[in-house]
Write a structure and sequence with these properties.
The protein is of the alpha/beta class. It has helices at about 15-25, 35-45, 55-65, 90-100, 100-115, 125-130, 145-155, 165-180, 205-220, and strands spanning about 5-10, 30-35, 65-70, 75, 80, 120-125, 135-140, 195. It has one domain (about 5-215): P-loop containing nucleotide triphosphate hydrolases (Rossmann fold). It has nine helices and eight strands.
């Protein structure tokens, strides 16, 4: 049975990470968080004092960086940045880095290399549209802005609840605007994606829905 490439896209706070990890675990697939790659590059650019609009310098950094984004931890050039990259400052820095076409080109090539053999659940904002437009299954998760802000504010992996929900909502709105208006790989619903509105849905229910789609797709590959 051919191992699948499963693409899960959506905006901040829609539940991509939680659902992708659960689905990957259930299938015994690798889970790749592509957003963490942009965050890690942004973290190191800030640490190294690079201008986030200096495309050549940030692209050189992305090319040379040794990135690790599997297994629940994130590292860059030997630095474990799993917690450091989940802050509002890095949210803004990552959004700036993600607007640089050359940086996207470099990281997309890495993402394709990670997933080309299948057996992967890859999450991000352009997986089904750009990275793997022919993915075996494309899912687009969304939720109301209020729900996404509430989740993000309550998530200890993102700022540890140190920011109020109103501030988080502002940050998410700014990231949404940046992601949807960038010229390179804007956030969109990929062609052929199944859209799931997770507003008010327990995580287990979302995972169950996705696993049903996976089962149907696996069944189709054996016919």
């Amino acid at each position: 049975m051919k191992p699948l490439i499963i693409a899960i896209d959506g905006p901040s706070g829609a539940g991509k990470g939680t659902v992708a990890r659960a689905v990957a675990g259930a299938l015994g697939y690798r889970h790749v968080d592509t957003g963490a790659m942009y965050r890690a590059v942004a973290w190191k650019a800030v640490r190294d004092g690079l201008g986030l609009d200096d495309e050549a310098a940030v692209a050189d950094l992305a090319t040379a960086a040794v990135l690790g984004v599997e297994g629940g931890s994130v590292s860059i050039d030997g630095h474990d940045v799993t917690r450091e990259i989940r802050t509002s400052d890095i949210d803004r820095a990552a959004a700036a880095v993600a607007r640089l076409p050359r940086v996207r080109e470099i990281l997309v090539a890495r993402q394709r290399a990670y997933g080309q053999s299948g057996g992967v659940v890859m999450e991000g904002r352009d997986i089904g549209s750009i990275v793997f437009p022919d993915a075996d299954l494309k899912i687009y998760l969304d939720a109301s802005p209020e729900e996404r802000a509430r989740r993000r504010a309550a998530d200890p992996a993102h700022s540890g609840g140190r920011e109020g929900q109103a501030a988080v909502a502002q940050s998410i709105a700014a990231r949404d605007q940046a992601d949807r208006t960038r010229t390179s790989s804007p956030l969109m619903v990929p062609d052929g994606a199944v859209v799931i509105d997770t507003t008010g849905m327990p995580v287990a229910a979302v995972v169950e829905r996705v696993m049903a789609l996976v089962s149907a797709r696996l069944g189709a590959t054996t016919r």
